[in-house]
Records
---
Amino acid sequence: MECDYCGDEARKTQGKLLVLNSGDKKFFCSGSCEKNWKNKRKHTHRKQE
Ligand SMILES: [Zn+2]
């Protein structure tokens, strides 16, 4: 599976699958990628408001 943050290929067992409230699924190769993605998302959201 491809990491939704950095785009690296990672094994399902190595990464983390996140299911959002909207039903979307996001896969991250590591906890730091998950954190970065969340930070980026928050930042983008704040920028839009
Ligand atoms: Zn990653």
Note: The chain has one helix and two strands.
---
Amino acid sequence: MTDLSHPALPGGLPDKRQVAASFSRAAASYDSVAQLQRDVGHELLGRLPTNLNPSRWLDMGCGTGYFSRALGVRFNQGEGVALDIAQGMLEHARPLGGARHFVAGDAERLPLQADSCDLVFSSLAVQWCADFAAVLGEAHRVLRPGGVMAFASLCVGTLHELRESWRAVDGLVHVNRFRLFSDYQQLCRDSGLRVVSLESRPQVLHYPDVRSLTHELKALGAHNLNPGRPGGLTGRARILGLMHAYEQFRQAEGLPATYQVVYAILEKPL
Ligand SMILES: C[S@@+](CC[C@H](N)C(=O)[O-])C[C@H]1O[C@@H](n2cnc3c(N)ncnc32)[C@H](O)[C@@H]1O
């Protein structure tokens, strides 16, 4: 059960303790359903500057450590730090290796020294951070001059079919909230980091039915944790209403779920 006893953070994003608990619970099931996360992280890896050779790199929001292992292979001369807010994820990732250090911590308050990293890599984690300016400030602080921050995140438009279908049923918040792409642009511009590239690209997955989508979100730990979400069991009539409403989006490949993915490469000026 999701713990509702903690107050929600301002800004409409879920409480971090709930995020950590939800991802910890999802650690065992995450890898089996993380195809989008794999595709996005590989795309982000492909966008890293080819001449990058970090002596110390950070995988921020490492989850099960899949990309910590990829970074460890690519930068095998460097010292890797894998960091996550969810203990359950770190316990899953640590025995699989890839990084030298596995650290519990918050992207908004990194437990790392200033000027201590050459690369901050973060795939599909910072959409969970209410204070993205703080995340950028921390990346700026821990990067050495010339260091790179590469992140992938999600913005408004993500899961819009699910959001609109729920709205047709009861008008309540059933889908996680996301920042506008223009907010990412503004915050990156104001960060003191140089914006090398920043773009948003849609990626659409297809499901045979609504249940397959909502089960997958739960297995990822990414189901709705927003303040204002409906409590209690989701009644049968509402589920049927949701299934009916979602059908308007059906395509030949199945029911679409759009992810609006943000990719950014930023650099700390010399
Ligand atoms: C969708 S998973 C992505 C994991 C991994 N990067 C990947 O691509 O497979 C998001 C991860 O971000 C972590 N996370 C969420 N908020 C965080 C925060 N404030 N600081 C550090 N990690 C956070 C979650 O615990 C979760 O493991």
Note: The two ends are 48 Å apart (CA to CA).
